[in-house]
Amino acid sequence: MIGFCANLFAQDLKQHRWENRILIVKTTYPESKQFQAQLNQIKNVASELIERKFVLYTIIEEDFTFINYKNLTLNNVGKLHGKLAKIVNNKSEFEVILIGLDGGVKLQQNNVLTKTKLFNKVDSMPMRRSEMRRKKNDE
C-alpha cells in the first residue's frame, strides 16, 4: 500500500508546482539512440539539476521512473497514468518535455535536448533569474 501511495504521489505533477522543474524523457524503445543520448546528456550533471530544482521522469512505454536529485528517498517507479500519461505524445517514439515551476510546458520536442540548451533555457526564465540574483546577494 505504501508503494502504491508513493506511486500516485510521484505522478501528481501538481505536487511539483513552485517546488520543482520537471524534465520528462519518454521513449517507446529503451535501446533508442535518441533516448540513450538524452540520458547521457544529463548523466553527470546532478549538481546543476539540483541547483535548478529539477526532478526527472523517464518513461518507457507505460512504465515510469521518477528521480528526485535532491532527495533520493523519493525516487520511485511505476505504471504511467493520470496527468503524466496525458502530457506525453503517445504517437511519438521519443520526446523531451520541460515543465517550469509554474506547471506550464516550457519546451516539448522530439530530438535530443543538450544539457547546454536545457540549462540556457531554464537560466533565461524570469523565476530562475530571480533565484540566481537571490543566491548572488546571499554570497
Supply the key terms.
139 residues; alpha+beta; six-stranded mixed beta sheet; globular
How would you describe what is shown here?
- The protein is 39% helix and 25% strand.
- With 139 residues, it is an alpha+beta fold.
- The protein has a six-stranded mixed beta sheet, sandwiched between helices.
- The N and C termini lie far apart (44 Å).
Helices and strands in order, then pairings?
Blueprint: H1 2-11, E1 21-27, H2 33-42, H3 46-51, E2 54-60, E3 63-68, E4 76-79, H4 82-87, E5 94-99, E6 105-109, H5 115-123, H6 126-138
Parallel strand pairs: 1-2
Antiparallel strand pairs: 1-5, 2-3, 3-4, 5-6
Number of helices: 6
Q: Main beta sheet, described?
A: 6 strands, mixed
What is the typical, i.e. mean, pLDDT? 88
What is the rounded distance between the termini? 44 Å
The total count of strands amounts to 6
Fraction in helix: 25-40%
User: Beta-strand percentage?
Assistant: 25-35%
Instruction: Give the H and E element order.
Output: HEHHEEEHEEHH
* Adjacency order of strands in the biggest sheet: 4-3-2-1-5-6
Low-pLDDT residue intervals, each spanning 5 or more residues: 1-10
Globally, the shape reads: globular
Secondary-structure-based class equals alpha+beta
Give the C-alpha Rg.
Answer: 15 Å
